[in-house]
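REVIEWER CHECKLIST
Item 1: Sequence provided? yes
Item 2: Single chain? yes
Item 3: Sequence as submitted:
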Amino acid sequence: MDSDDAPALSADTLALLQSFLSEKQEAEERFAQLQEAADADFQNAKKIDMSYFQENWQLSQFWYDDATSDFIADRAFANTQDGDHIAFISSPTAYVTFRNKYERSNAFVFEFDQRFDVFRDQFVHYDFNHPVEFARAQDMKHKFKFIVADPPFLNEDCLAQTMETVKFLAAEGAKVMIDTGAVMEDLALKLIGAKITNFRPAHKGGLANEFRCYATFNDDKLTWLSK
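Item 4: Structure as written out by the authors:
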């Protein structure tokens, strides 16, 4: 096709594209600065928010809205004590919120996206396809008292393999929250005894699939729904 025959973008479409590319470049530049600061002094990275991390839809990344990440972080804090290990599996939004709100050194983010290695020792590179193959795995086995899991893909295999990780990490009496699609209710109960709750996770960009929260515990804010 000759260049003269190529379809031309409308002015409005071109403006949107230019705005998107500009925002993407700005986010990449801010993240590069963040990495430099973390390399120089990890404490400089203490207050990091999710604006540094653009969603990567190829990795099925959809960030929680503020109310959701606050609720999850608050549940993790309320149900643990100083010194308890807390895991956020494929749930970086909730981890970042928790880290910014509470002083707990034993909270870890298990995540495939290596941008989150700015959190240094609290970052664990994690691939749900290899549920118990990650750095320091044996040191972390059965150490975690509270676990949040948000399997990145909405299918049974992803949930099942993520639950393998949860079982591997969970200490005796560990409390588990799972945020995933409503269609996974029966499987969440079967795999780990997590029941559907009153809490409905929400995402900043919205999702077509209905999302629900399942948990192995009740507290004053998170309650099981009776059938």
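Item 5: Key structural point noted by reviewer: The chain has a mean pLDDT of 85.
Item 6: Recommendation: ____
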